[in-house]
Amino acid sequence: MKVLGIETSCDETAVAVVEGNSILAERISSQIDLHSEYGGVVPELASREHLKKLNILLQECLSEAELGFGDIDAVAVTAFPGLEGSLLVGLTAGRTLSFLMRIPIVEVDHVEAHMFAGRFGDMDPPPGIGLIVSGGHTRLVLIKQWGDYLTLGDTRDDAAGEAFDKAASVLGLPYPGGPAIEKEAAGTDPGVFKFPVSRLGDSFDFSYSGLKTSVLYKVRYDLNEKVSEAQRRQIAAAFQEAAVTPLVKNAVRAAEKYSARWILVCGGVASNGRLREKLRDETEGKPFKAVFPPRRLCTDNASMVASCGEFYLNNT
């Protein structure tokens, strides 16, 4: 089954054609340059950019796969959650293609779709733990079977990716904050500054508002906004360590409690090198392993949407 995936939930316009666990073609147009001067995504600008790019990407993607619209068996499109205007662009395109070509359409949960990015690699069967970490979501899920989940924990305030963006802004680093913080922190001792690591008892929930505020207070009040280059790197490293630590601890605790075979980390923050390193260290010698999709499939993409859609087409 050849499934055309469409993703327009936020600031990436993405199209892909997937057949089974093979990506036949994919195209992504990022809006980072457009939104960077505002320090975050401007919803109206994002919607307009999706309108400009989507038809072009559809044609390019089909051309790369050497397919025509008539060769597509189904459409999968992100339906929620996301920016309302951006979602509407993708949904309208997907529903139109479904109607004109008389093929089925699956409207996909964006958060669930992130977990399907892991299915393009070599994964053992469930049960497993899914850790979805992005700018809008920080969620821990027990994957009993694909399509059958139990949410174990969620963020009580800011998502991890959002905290990265805000900490980067306080430090005068560019948007998006995740890559900027990681680059600044590289090779720097994270122990010079101390920031709070969230601990919420036996809960698997997360909290990042306190960490974000601590960085702000450190820069604004303790250092009077006079941050040297060395201090900027040290703060970035300390923040990054405090941000990834609860992600790793909660995921490992969940895997032990539910006898998981693996921990799948997905979403944009799954690209973070320190998170990958720390989780691999913590799972060494344990009966479960850490699984990360390729970095290009961690950020928003249409291949994960198509894979999720294909699963439901084949299993409902």
Task: Write the topology of this structure.
Layout: E1 2-7, E2 12-19, E3 22-30, H1 32-36, H2 43-64, E4 74-80, H3 84-101, E5 105-109, H4 110-116, E6 128-133, E7 138-145, E8 148-154, H5 160-170, H6 177-185, H7 209-222, H8 229-257, E9 262-266, H9 273-283, E10 289-291, H10 302-315
Parallel strand pairs: 1-4, 4-5, 6-9, 9-10
Antiparallel strand pairs: 1-2, 2-3, 6-7, 7-8
Helix pairs in contact: 2-3, 4-10, 5-6, 5-7, 5-8, 6-8, 8-9
What does the average pLDDT come to? 97
The rough form would be described as globular
Measured between the Cα atoms of the first and last residue, the distance is 15 Å
What's the level 1 CATH class of the largest domain?
Alpha Beta
Structural class: alpha/beta
Tally of individual domains? 2
**Biggest beta sheet attributes:** 5 strands, mixed
Binned strand content: 15-25%
CATH superfamily of the largest domain: ATPase, nucleotide binding domain
Total strands: the figure is 10
Q: How big is the Rg?
A: 20 Å
Strand order of the largest sheet: 3-2-1-4-5
Element-by-element helix/strand order: EEEHHEHEHEEEHHHHEHEH
> CATH topology of the largest domain, what is it called?
Nucleotidyltransferase, domain 5
Q: Bin the helical content.
A: 40-55%
- How many individual helices? 10
CATH architecture of the largest domain: 2-Layer Sandwich
